Amino acid sequence: MIYFDNSATTQVEESVLETFVKVSQQLNGNPSSLHRLGDKADGLLQQSRRQIAEVMGTKDAEIYFTSSGTEGDNWAIKGTAIEKRRYGKHLITTSVEHPAVKQTMAQLASLGFDITYLPVDEQGVVSVEALTKAIRPDTILVSVMAVNNEVGSIQPIHEIGEILKKYPTIHFHVDAVQAVGKIPFDLGEHSRIDLATFSGHKFHALKGTGFMFIRHGRKIAPLLNGGGQERGYRSGTENVAGIAAMAKALRLLFDHKEEKVAKQRAIRDHILDTLAQYPKVKVFSSKTGAPHIVCFALSGIRGEVSVHAFENENIYISTTSACSSRSGASSSTLAAMNIPDKIATGAVRVSLTDTNTLEEADQFLKAFDQLYEQFKAI
């Protein structure tokens, strides 16, 4: 089997799974309990928080645990809207965000908030100048993803942050789910990013785990109220085993990170260079994008047909976003890039991780060549 759908989810690393099982079996106390078992669970929880903060270059108190990137995006956006609604109801985002951001914005619009969706260029990249012009006196939030999950375009997060330094009252949220371990991403004291969301199952941890960065001094309202866990910001008993496993997965992700990224980039470039030789193939990703994503379409063939054709060869890819692929809708990112719908409906995505190999890429390309010949007559 060749698994090239890592932007949808990654395989759990064996030692990470072992950590989850060990903690689940040996440390079943509630970290909020006052007895010894609760203290041990809380100790491991805080140790995991410190480890994640160290890897990410932040303070322990700026890391909060969630269940997913979707929860984090909802929390960052709705939490800001609730907390800052007395100061304004204008939010800025882009036309190529993940559904967790776009649908959250749509919900806020139905509640009376004003949303600006910034356009992108043919590479799927937003204009810093356009963003600057969109800022208003009542703007309370700018939300821009670091790496697009469909085509891999990298947004100018640093440049946007430099602009927003002139507007200290505006919260800056970044969906970093596809960025962590793939591109340089700074959350240090000189970064302008206020809120950032991450998902464990995108870097070999378990599904149902995630974390969020909230810069010290920035306030957002909680979405989950109750027992006051996570310093009152996110109530609900913490998934200690999952969090400990996620902390381990993140540490492993950053071990020899440069080598891992270079390996993925080499595989991506090999696939891009080969696909470019086929006249009926339209490639949407570029070598300036993230090192792990290749998005392309075979002219006249719907994306789901290509996905199942590769599946028959025991190769697993996806149509653009896994979160919306079952709906049958064409890619919103490609639409924002002005790709005609008849081409966009054929889009598929190859997404890599550090365990993939050039040999797997060659097998994929061999299978693609055979399928291309079969489909050419169509």
TrEMBL record:
Q: Which PROSITE patterns match?
A: AA_TRANSFER_CLASS_5
Cofactor (UniProt): pyridoxal 5'-phosphate
Would I find RNA-binding among this entry's keywords?
A: no
GO MF entries: cysteine desulfurase activity; iron-sulfur cluster binding; metal ion binding
Keyword list, A-Z: Iron, Iron-sulfur, Metal-binding, Pyridoxal phosphate
* Aminotransferase class V domain span: 2-364
Q: Which stretch is the leader sequence?
A: none
Q: Which Pfam families match?
A: Aminotran_5
| Family recorded in the similarity comment | Belongs to the class-V pyridoxal-phosphate-dependent aminotransferase family. NifS/IscS subfamily.
Q: Tell me the PANTHER family matching this sequence.
A: CYSTEINE DESULFURASE ISCS 2-RELATED (PTHR11601:SF50), CYSTEINE DESULFURYLASE FAMILY MEMBER (PTHR11601)
This one is known as Cysteine desulfurase
Q: Which organism is it from?
A: Pisciglobus halotolerans
Q: What is the lineage of its organism?
A: Bacteria, Bacillati, Bacillota, Bacilli, Lactobacillales
